[in-house]
Specification:
The protein is of the alpha/beta class. The protein has 6 helices and 15 strands. A hairpin with a 6-residue loop joins strand 10 and strand 11 (about 255-260).
Length: about 350
């Protein structure tokens, strides 16, 4: 079979995972072309800002739940056998309030607000918490074993795995998606382009997806050890604010969040929100500071990221634009990591179909 030249546009977790999955086929010669690469920190580049963890917000019976379910074994395998990936297991607790079901955060957390979510049969050690195990202000909770990802290690790990498989990386900026066909490392025109541009799909020529919008996140990265990964479904500070705490692997610090501010493009840290985030974290997890106040948090840095939300759902499909096949894989919102392998498997299937049609 003849080789096929493929350009993946975007080097976030979706683009890197898709490139790595595609590289399993030795006839695919892959270039990853992107404005931002692992190691960069920019408001346009969502992946480095993520927590990141596996906390399935997908609803039972949906394609998204299937993507999450297929991703778990891959993350579990990395946590067990590949410490160099920067992923470790964490005991996890979810604390829920009944009144959050109609809020912005409750809409996001709809599945995990349940006491019997679909992932109870996927994640180890799932159980309902007793009343004494739930912090004041919450009505009920669940616990299970999950993973937390140190994105500062994991994104370079994916890059290294791609490089070992022969994938070539190039810095590029495109006004139109079809321009990517010109940057394949062979010097010849690409046969197919994979679009993993995240929020940029809203303005990229040839795509210009009007369904793309940001859901702003703000975090505080601290040195303190929480002893558990936990989240609350909401708070009294606003319906688009909540609390989540996750300790990254390999000394990556502890992420304190957060918010889910739809349509908010602000890239600057809101100091008042930062104080609320820290106060909520210390309240829900006193172990962070040994029962003391936020002044005992050791801050590494503050951060803001824009989740690439697509109001009509993730776009996983193929189409021809300007005579070249484009496979789209974008719009993952706040679940890019936990759906990454499931979505990349669908993207590879679409690439295979398109390449068959090209022959």
């Amino acid at each position: 079979m003849a080789d096929s030249r493929i350009v993946v546009v975007g080097a976030g977790v979706a683009g890197l995972t898709t490139a790595l999955t595609l590289s399993k086929n030795p006839t695919y010669k892959i270039t990853v072309a992107a404005k931002h690469m692992p190691g960069d920190y920019d408001i346009e580049y969502a992946s480095p800002w993520a927590g990141a963890n596996y906390l399935p917000v997908s609803r039972a019976g949906t394609a998204a739940a299937d993507w999450d379910k297929k991703t778990w074994p891959e993350l579990e395998k990395l946590a067990k056998h590949h410490p160099e990936a920067g992923i470790h297991f964490q005991e996890t607790a979810l604390y829920n309030r009944k009144k959050d079901t109609e809020s912005a955060t409750g809409e996001w957390f709809a599945e995990i607000l349940k006491t019997d979510p679909w992932f109870k049969d996927t994640l180890p050690n799932f159980k309902a918490l007793t009343e004494t195990e739930v912090p004041p202000g919450f009505d009920y909770g669940t616990s299970f074993t999950s993973v937390c990802i140190n994105t500062a290690i994991y994104l370079p790990y994916l890059t290294s795995e791609c490089l070992k498989a022969g994938v070539v990386f190039k810095r590029s900026i495109f006004d139109h998606i079809t321009e990517a066909a010109k940057v394949h490392h062979s010097g010849e025109k690409a046969d197919l382009i994979v679009n993993c541009t995240g929020l940029s799909a809203g303005k990229l020529g040839g795509v210009e997806d009007k369904d793309m919008m940001p859901a702003r996140a703000q975090i505080v990265l601290v040195r303190n050890d929480p002893g558990v990964m936990c989240s609350g479904s909401g708070c009294e500070d606003g319906e688009d604010e909540l609390c989540y705490i996750m300790q990254r692997a390999a000394g990556g610090g502890t992420i304190l969040g957060g918010c889910y501010q739809k349509g908010n493009w602000d890239s600057q840290v809101d100091p008042n929100l930062a104080n609320r985030i820290m106060k909520r974290a210390v309240d829900i997890c006193p172990a962070l500071t040994g029962g003391k106040g936020i002044e005992h948090l050791s801050i590494i840095r503050h951060g803001v990221g824009l989740r690439p939300v697509r109001t009509s759902g993730v776009r996983l499909e193929k189409e021809k634009i300007g005579g070249i096949w484009i496979v789209h894989n974008y719009g993952h919102g706040g679940f890019g990591y936990q759906s990454s392998y499931g979505c990349s498997q669908i993207a590879v299937k679409l690439v295979n179909e398109a390449m068959t049609n090209n022959q």
